[in-house]
Each structure stands twice: as structure tokens, then as C-alpha cells.
Write a structure and sequence with these properties.
The protein is α/β, with parallel strands linked by helices. The protein contains ten helices and seven strands. Strands 3-2-1-4-5-6-7 form a seven-stranded parallel sheet, sandwiched between helices. Helix 2 runs parallel beside helix 3, helix 2 (39-50) packs across helix 8 (232-244) and helix 9 crosses helix 10. The relative contact order is 0.13. The structure holds NADPH dihydro-nicotinamide-adenine-dinucleotide phosphate. NADPH dihydro-nicotinamide-adenine-dinucleotide phosphate binds at residues 35-41, 59-61, 64, 85-88, 113-116, 136, 162, 164, 209, 211-212, 214, 216-217.
């Protein structure tokens, strides 16, 4: 108990010493948010809008994007443009970055957030789905990051990668999804080192989220687990602050940080807890 209490105090101390967020720094900022038609991405678009940013949003459904962009303008965005794109396509990730660079005249923030739909079920050997999901959730991220890097370098900008606790701690029922998030953490973790060693102007923030109450997540887990879900709007704000204050990592909610450590320090207990936090009868 004493050990656990000390770990909690240490993590809270890290949280309290985080840099201060200046909302004014986002006024006029040029931002591209992916996966912004629903969920956390949509909430991020609204927050950036309230801060007076210039936003480009993307996802596949054009009509929904149009509605989100209109709401962004009504909330105070200096600009709110949208472009429909499928991140499974070879060319769409580049097309989206080119669109944002052209319309905004450069980028200060690239927020990579989209995910393709994936079943919440035991792995039954669907290799094709996993390959497709890798394209959407991983390869498109690195393609867009590379395309935007020169502009971010010029603007001393930030690359924000929305990842998951499941990118640090494997869980049942989401093997393809977990793999894509582990790939993101590995790739962008390596890139963080390389940019620091090159004394690059660009920072990368990797965001580790626990369960968030978006429609798509709730649909999958309702009745299956009693793990608490945290509000999408708060998750979105925390992601934005992490990027704006150029922090390398976010753990939201904060105890996800403790869970990632406990997995390495107390593997048997953690495995027991994970396997017993779902209603499953073989
Ligand atoms: P949602 O499922 O609510 O939203 C996903 C977004 O991605 C939508 O805008 C969707 O729009 C878009 N999208 C889906 N497929 C494609 C595609 N092929 N090409 C382009 N865009 C696509 O996700 P959440 O808001 O729940 O999650 C957002 C981020 O947060 C993700 O990175 C997720 O991994 C992470 N996260 C979420 C958690 C949660 O519990 N919700 C927990 C941990 C991490 P459209 O259908 O119009 O294309």
C-alpha cells in the first residue's frame, strides 16, 4: 500500500509541475485534425475553434464534416475547412496534408487521431482486416507526419499522436487495434529521439488514453466491462493542452500511467485484473 501511495504521489507531482497552458497561443494557430467527424476528434475541433484557431478537419463522411466545420465557425474558429478522405487509400493521406498546407499557408499542429472501425471480439484469424487496419491506423499516420514535417519545422510546430493504453498494455478482444497502437508508440517514440538528436524545432506528443465515452467505444464495451469511461470533451482538451505545451506524453486519465508501470512491475496481478475485467463465458 505504501509503495502504491508513493507511486501515486510521484505521478501527481509530475502532473502538477506540467508547463502552464496559454490559450492565447492557439489564436490563429493553423491546425489539421484527422478523424474529426465524431468522437474525440470532433471535440478537439470544437475546442480549437473556441480558442480561435484556423482548422482543417478530415474523415470519410463529407456531410458530417460540413456540419462540424459550420459549428466550428459558430464557436469562433478563424477558418474551418474540411476535406473528405479515406486513410486506407495510398494517396489520400498526402492529399489531405497538401490541402491543409495550401489553404492555411502552413501548419502549426498536425493532430493524428483517426481510427478505422475494428471488431471487439476474440481473434479469429482475420489477417486481411489487420493489414487494412494497419494502413488506416498506422501507415497513414507516418505518411502524413512525413509530408507535414518540413512545414512544422518552419513553424516550430507540434505533431500530436492520439494513442491508447492498449498501445502499451495488450488487452483481449482488440488484437488488431492493439497492434496498430503499439506500432504508433514504437515509431513515434523513435522519431521523438531522432528529432531531439537533430535539434529539430518539432515536438511530438504521444497521448495515451484510457476508456473514453465516445459513441463507437461505448457501443463496443457496454455490458462487457465495468471499466469507467471518461468524457471525450475533457480528453480532447487534455490532448490539445499537451500539444500546445509541447509535452512529450499525456496519460489521460492520469491513472493510465500507473497501469502501464504496474504491468511491468506486477505482471501476474495486472494480467489477473485485465482478464477479469470483462464479462466473458467461453
Ligand atoms: P471514433 O470511432 O469516434 O472516430 C473515429 C474517426 O475516424 C471518425 O471521425 C471517423 O470518421 C474516422 N475514420 C474512420 N475510418 C476512417 C478512414 N478509413 N479514413 C479516414 N477517417 C476514418 O473514435 P474515438 O473518438 O473513440 O477515438 C479517437 C482516438 O482516440 C483514436 O485514435 C483512438 O484510438 C483513441 N482512443 C480512444 C479511446 C476510446 O475509448 N474512445 C480509448 C483510447 C484511445 P468517418 O467514419 O466519417 O470516416
Amino acid at each position: 500500500k505504501i509503495l502504491l501511495a508513493s507511486i501515486c504521489v510521484a505521478f501527481l507531482a509530475v502532473k502538477w509541475t506540467a508547463p502552464t497552458f496559454d490559450a492565447e497561443s492557439l489564436r490563429g494557430a493553423r491546425v489539421l485534425v484527422t478523424g474529426a467527424s465524431t468522437g474525440i476528434g470532433e471535440q478537439m475541433a470544437y475546442h480549437y475553434a473556441r480558442f480561435g484557431a484556423q482548422i482543417v478537419i478530415t474523415a470519410r463522411r463529407e456531410k458530417v464534416l460540413q456540419q462540424v466545420a459550420e459549428k466550428c465557425l459558430s464557436l469562433g474558429a478563424q477558418k474551418a475547412l474540411y476535406i473528405a478522405a479515406d486513410m486506407a487509400s495510398e494517396s489520400d493521406p498526402d492529399k489531405v496534408v497538401d490541402f491543409a498546407l495550401e489553404k492555411l499557408g502552413g501548419l502549426d499542429y498536425l493532430v493524428l487521431n483517426h481510427i478505422g472501425p475494428s471488431p471487439f471480439s476474440m481473434w479469429e484469424g482475420d489477417v486481411e482486416h489487420t493489414k487494412w487496419l494497419m494502413k488506416v491506423n498506422f501507415f497513414s499516420y507516418i505518411q502524413m507526419a512525413w509530408k507535414a514535417l518540413a512545414s512544422l519545422e518552419q513553424s516550430k510546430g507540434s505533431l500530436v499522436v492520439v494513442s491508447s493504453l492498449l498501445g502499451k498494455m495488450p488487452s483481449p478482444f482488440v488484437a488488431p487495434y492493439t497492434s496498430t497502437k503499439f506500432a504508433l508508440n514504437g515509431f513515434f517514440g523513435a522519431l521523438q529521439h531522432e528529432l531531439a538528436m537533430k535539434k529539430s524545432n518539432v515536438t511530438i506528443s504521444i497521448c495515451t488514453l484510457g476508456l473514453i465515452d465516445t459513441e463507437s467505444a461505448m457501443e463496443k464495451v457496454s455490458g462487457v466491462t465495468s471499466v469507467p469511461a471518461y468524457p471525450a470533451t475533457d480528453a480532447a482538451l487534455n490532448i490539445i493542452i499537451t500539444g500546445a505545451t509541447r509535452q512529450l506524453e499525456l496519460f489521460y486519465p492520469w491513472f493510465t500511467h500507473i497501469l502501464t508501470v504496474s504491468k511491468d512491475w506486477f505482471p501476474s496481478i495486472t494480467n489477473y485484473v485485465i482478464q477479469n475485467s470483462y464479462n466473458y463465458n467461453p
